[in-house]
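Quick one, tokens below:
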């Protein structure tokens, strides 16, 4: 196997041979050429996530760090290249993974690191989600431009002036915001964290925006958050704050290596949230929120939301159960939401 092969070979042997030799459970001899290539988007946040993943995996097997066993491979995705339209209008959130998974399937990369909320609910044939890393704060935050006033208030949206223009490309955020504050206006802004912050600060730009607090924390920009919204006030995207790693389904060695760094809590809550999405079968045109958490008593709590983009309809429900039933709970809650929502929500 990969780990035992590395430990027995030693760094000098790896440098000289440039390969990892091992045996699969089917006893087929395999050769893996170093460095192992890690596919990633090129944004500062994506690179942070990839390097965080590599830091974790080299702690499990320090020899991998000694022999410089990894190489980052930045892959431009369709979702990154088109910035002036919503993802729903150009093919959906899977566009942040399409080209990366093509590279994974044809062998140009060995791993792929993603913000799990950007992954398709159903992965392409031959690719599996092999690892979920510990979840960062899953909540959304409001960032304010110079014309908005911050300050403490019982109303989390009090910082937004009447009729304010809010920039976001997320119809999930838009629907919940407009449901609470129908006076607000929304325009599309996309791009990485730094680009969105720059647009909010710019003269003539939107007066505020909403971003995942996880991204702000990872970029050491948490101070930019004027208000952090409770997950019940603004239900997060499914798997928000979780980094996921995909590999080829038949790559048993890497799947076993990744199992050593998977966070069990993140795996549990992501299973519930992704099952919720799968049951709703929503597209990027369907505002859907999903948030699971493990409670102190050991139970799993799951909140699901569906809405219309204009905020005129919003349905939110909760379910509790055993962590072992995470996927079943997600499907059950999704079925319940779908049953009691207008048909046009999923059109």
């Amino acid at each position: 196997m990969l780990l035992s092969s590395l430990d027995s070979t030693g760094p000098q042997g790896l440098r000289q041979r440039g390969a990892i030799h091992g045996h699969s459970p089917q006893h087929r001899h395999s050769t893996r050429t170093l460095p192992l290539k890690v596919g990633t988007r090129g944004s500062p946040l994506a690179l942070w996530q990839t390097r965080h993943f590599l830091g974790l995996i080299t702690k499990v097997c320090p020899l991998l760090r000694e022999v410089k066993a990894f190489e980052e491979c930045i892959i431009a995705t369709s979702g990154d290249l088109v910035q002036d339209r919503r993802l729903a209008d150009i093919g959906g959130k899977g566009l942040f993974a399409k080209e990366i998974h093509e590279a994974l399937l044809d062998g140009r990369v060995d791993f792929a690191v993603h913000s799990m909320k950007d992954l398709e609910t159903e992965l392409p044939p031959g690719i599996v989600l092999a690892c979920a890393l510990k979840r960062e704060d899953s909540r959304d935050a409001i960032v304010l431009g110079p014309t908005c006033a911050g300050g403490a208030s019982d109303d989390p949206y009090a910082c937004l002036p009447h009729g304010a223009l809010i920039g976001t490309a997320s119809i999930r955020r838009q629907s919940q915001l407009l449901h609470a504050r129908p006076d607000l206006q929304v325009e599309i802004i996309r791009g990485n964290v730094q680009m969105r912050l720059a647009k909010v600060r710019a003269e003539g730009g939107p007066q505020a925006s909403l971003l995942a607090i996880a991204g702000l924390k990872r970029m050491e920009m948490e101070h930019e958050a004027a208000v952090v919204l409770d997950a019940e006030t603004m239900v997060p995207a499914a798997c928000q704050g979780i980094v996921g790693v995909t590999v080829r389904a038949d790559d048993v060695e890497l799947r076993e290596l990744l199992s050593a760094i998977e966070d069990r809590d993140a795996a549990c809550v992501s299973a519930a949230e992704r099952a919720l999405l799968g049951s709703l079968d929503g597209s990027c045109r369907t505002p859907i929120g999903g948030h699971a958490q493990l409670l102190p008593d050991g139970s799993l709590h799951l909140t699901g939301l569906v809405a219309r983009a204009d905020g005129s309809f919003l349905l939110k429900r909760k379910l509790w159960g055993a962590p072992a039933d995470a996927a079943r709970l997600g499907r059950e809650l999704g079925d319940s939401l779908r049953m009691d929502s207008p048909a046009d929500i999923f059109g």
